[in-house]
Structure prediction request, 207 residues.
Amino acid sequence: MSHRFLHRVFRSPGPRHWRSRLLGALLVLCACAAHAGESPPREYLDEETGATVTLESEPLVFAYARRELAANARDYVTLQAAAVNRGGKVSYVLISYVWSTVDPRMREEPLPTPDVLLLRADDRRIQLSARGHTAREAGIGMAVDAPAGSNATPTVYSTDLATLRFIAESRHLALALDTERTTLTYDLWEDRRAALNRFVRHMSGAD
Prediction:
C-alpha cells in the first residue's frame, strides 16, 4: 500500500468519519496480510475421551537418511505439541509418529516405537517419556495429523509449557532414538518452531 494512496484518502473531500472507517478497514487488511500463512493452534472436543484438545498447527519433523537402502529414502519422527483439558485440569503432551519412506521389505529391523526419546535442544538434553501405553490414556482418542499414506500409530510423551517454550526458542534441535542395535540421530527436517511458539503464546494467554 503506497503512501501516495493514503495521502489521497486523507486529502479527499467528504465526512471525516468515512475516512476513519476506511483507514480502519485498511489497517485490518494489512494485519491480515502480515499474518498470512500463520496458522493458529486448533482446538477440538475429543468425542472419545471428552477432553478439549488444543493442538499445535504444524508438527516439527525430524529425519534420518537411509541412503544405504534407497536414494532419497528417510525415516521420520514428528513431534506435535498439544494441551489436554479434562475437567479444567490442563496437561501438556508431545504427540509423536514414527514412519518411513523405505520399503519394509528392505529393512533388517522394524521401525521402533520408542518409550523414550532424547531431544537435543541447544545445550540441553530433554528426555521425553511416554505418558501411557496409548494416546487415549493421555486424553487423545482421535488420531490427529497422522502422516499421509502411513499406518503409524501415535506415541504420547509428557511435557510442560516451560519445556515447550524452551524448545520453540532453541536455535538447534535434533532427536536421538534408540533401536535394537544403536542410537540414531534425526536432524530437523521441517522447521515448525514458529508454529510451536504460537502454541506456547496461545496457551500462555499472550495472544
